[in-house]
Amino acid sequence: MLFREFAELCDRLETISSRLAMIDVLSGVFPSLSEEELPVFVRFMRGKIFPDWSSEKLGFGPGLLYEALAYVIGKKRQVVISAINSSGDTGRVVEDLLEKREQTMFFSEDLELLEVHARFLQMAKTSGRKSQQERMRSAQYLLSNASPLEGRYLSRLMLEEMRIGIGEGVVREAVAKGFAVPVEIVEHAHQALNDLGEVALLAKTDPAALAKVHITPFRPVKMMLAQAGSIAGMVEAHGFLAAENKYDGSRFQFHKAGGRTAIYSRRLEEMTASLPDVVALLSAATDHDVIIDGEVIAMQNGKPMPFQTVLRRIRRKHGVTDAADAIHMQPRVFDILVCDGETLIDRPFSERRKILERVMKDFVAPQMVSDSPEEIESYYHAALDDGNEGIMLKVLDSPYLPGNRGKLWIKIKPEVDTIDLVVTGAEWGEGKRAKMFGSFLLACQDENGDLLELSRVATGIDDAMLAELYELFKDKIIAEHGKTVVFEPDVVFEVGYAELQKSTTYAAGYALRFPRFVRLRDDKDPSEVETIDSLFRRYNMQNKAGINEPGR
Ligand code: AMP
């Protein structure tokens, strides 16, 4: 497939809003692609270069893209930056500038989809002193051989954001339709493989194998998530339940197989190098090959440390040994996904728990099974007294559903009005904070994952945190207009507030009254931020007489 054909297809999909029509288009294309092209095409559609389980990064930020483009069109970098500042849509600006380019190439080559992919892989692989230069050269090569439309999608791929509205669900259904396999089987294979590209390839080459896929060690799967709920509601729905402490730490997935070990964060980034002590503890606690789900907490002098400490420690790339001396990281494990090569996610939780207790000599999170709301209530209060966030209630016969935030795991914690939002921009500070960001623009998401701005936050950030945030955000700037900067939406803040108000200022239709920064949630992915539906529910709960409130 030519990259031009891929770009034309993306352009067409961008104008389609019906889900069914998108599925129709994709399912028509999939079978015509070769075995090499299909997985690449599927990942590209979703703005991905690597499988979802991979920690690999392209290592190509907006800054390098602007520079490569400036070179290709024979203009100053500032010309590119001003054009992006006045538009905000990098892909369209690249397209526009390529259209107007003065230095037409003497000859340009047709780019193949696989060739673009190979270049990206090469860009990701380069390391060492000259790596930026090499990445730049590859980007220049690609952009100078690209038509304006190809440039739109090349640049979006480089920034890993396609903006064509193709969600995972659409791809799964298109794979099912294109290769005539049941969508449930496609979904199941996707949960275990965590790479839609590979799932599509299997559907093409060996559909019968889809139902039998196993989770592969060192390819992390998405973590199962929880919803908020009530003890009484859960007991009424399920009777006997498992209750566990809800630890205030950081989620991990530990893999051990064939003498090798690794640990991954909730965002599936490999953390083995920053948590060697936790890896050693877990590895010594079992003689089996396993994939284990758990939470790591930080202890100092026998007491649990605040969550932020754990994240700082994880973020710190250097000085691991020093930090390990001061803070003791303690794993708590509560689920097992694979044991000695057997994938366990379809087994009931109660069975998985027995296997977990059998194979782990230590660190298994204590659990209570009960059908008494009073008993669970007192377990909850004891958990809070011990410094936990609350408890988790888990349905005993539930499978492990990777990536699912359903009603099988329910979190019970005190009502605190905090909300997770993604940071989309900022304003430069004033006075002694002029070289840092002063206030941050925050957004929630709608049902399609599109971001809707909701509020700004400036309160609650001390000088040390401001400096840390500057370091974190400085490479994520996409555009700048006067005092305002636009960021790649990549970082999640937990924000406290006094009240939710209706607003005509912000796209979400709501604003936070007295927003206050609580903490950085770098364990959370932007896809996990508050949805507009749950904001609406919060709003109605807050105005108890919400019955009078007209719907959105
Ligand atoms: P939340 O981040 O508020 O959506 O709550 C879900 C998170 O609680 C999970 O992602 C885990 O990081 C954490 N957690 C703490 N203790 C447990 C537990 N016993 N079982 C499952 N998740 C837990």
Automatic annotation (TrEMBL):
<dbReference type="InterPro" id="IPR012310">
    <property type="entry name" value="DNA_ligase_ATP-dep_cent"/>
</dbReference>
<feature type="binding site">
    <location>
        <position position="251"/>
    </location>
    <ligand>
        <name>ATP</name>
    </ligand>
</feature>
<feature type="binding site">
    <location>
        <position position="411"/>
    </location>
    <ligand>
        <name>ATP</name>
    </ligand>
</feature>
<feature type="binding site">
    <location>
        <position position="244"/>
    </location>
    <ligand>
        <name>ATP</name>
    </ligand>
</feature>
<keyword id="KW-0460">Magnesium</keyword>
<dbReference type="InterPro" id="IPR050191">
    <property type="entry name" value="ATP-dep_DNA_ligase"/>
</dbReference>
<dbReference type="InterPro" id="IPR022865">
    <property type="entry name" value="DNA_ligae_ATP-dep_bac/arc"/>
</dbReference>
<keyword id="KW-0131">Cell cycle</keyword>
<dbReference type="Pfam" id="PF04679">
    <property type="entry name" value="DNA_ligase_A_C"/>
</dbReference>
<keyword id="KW-0067">ATP-binding</keyword>
<feature type="domain" description="ATP-dependent DNA ligase family profile">
    <location>
        <begin position="333"/>
        <end position="446"/>
    </location>
</feature>
<dbReference type="InterPro" id="IPR012340">
    <property type="entry name" value="NA-bd_OB-fold"/>
</dbReference>
<dbReference type="InterPro" id="IPR000977">
    <property type="entry name" value="DNA_ligase_ATP-dep"/>
</dbReference>
<comment type="similarity">
    <text>Belongs to the ATP-dependent DNA ligase family.</text>
</comment>
<keyword id="KW-0547">Nucleotide-binding</keyword>
<keyword id="KW-0234">DNA repair</keyword>
<dbReference type="InterPro" id="IPR012308">
    <property type="entry name" value="DNA_ligase_ATP-dep_N"/>
</dbReference>
<feature type="binding site">
    <location>
        <position position="295"/>
    </location>
    <ligand>
        <name>ATP</name>
    </ligand>
</feature>
<keyword id="KW-0235">DNA replication</keyword>
<keyword id="KW-0436">Ligase</keyword>
<keyword id="KW-0233">DNA recombination</keyword>
<comment type="function">
    <text>DNA ligase that seals nicks in double-stranded DNA during DNA replication, DNA recombination and DNA repair.</text>
</comment>
<dbReference type="Pfam" id="PF04675">
    <property type="entry name" value="DNA_ligase_A_N"/>
</dbReference>
<keyword id="KW-0132">Cell division</keyword>
<dbReference type="InterPro" id="IPR036599">
    <property type="entry name" value="DNA_ligase_N_sf"/>
</dbReference>
<dbReference type="GO" id="GO:0003910">
    <property type="term" value="F:DNA ligase (ATP) activity"/>
</dbReference>
<protein>
    <recommendedName>
        <fullName>DNA ligase</fullName>
        <ecNumber>6.5.1.1</ecNumber>
    </recommendedName>
</protein>
<keyword id="KW-0227">DNA damage</keyword>
<feature type="binding site">
    <location>
        <position position="334"/>
    </location>
    <ligand>
        <name>ATP</name>
    </ligand>
</feature>
<dbReference type="Pfam" id="PF01068">
    <property type="entry name" value="DNA_ligase_A_M"/>
</dbReference>
<feature type="binding site">
    <location>
        <position position="405"/>
    </location>
    <ligand>
        <name>ATP</name>
    </ligand>
</feature>
<feature type="active site" description="N6-AMP-lysine intermediate">
    <location>
        <position position="246"/>
    </location>
</feature>
<keyword id="KW-0479">Metal-binding</keyword>
<feature type="binding site">
    <location>
        <position position="266"/>
    </location>
    <ligand>
        <name>ATP</name>
    </ligand>
</feature>
<dbReference type="InterPro" id="IPR012309">
    <property type="entry name" value="DNA_ligase_ATP-dep_C"/>
</dbReference>
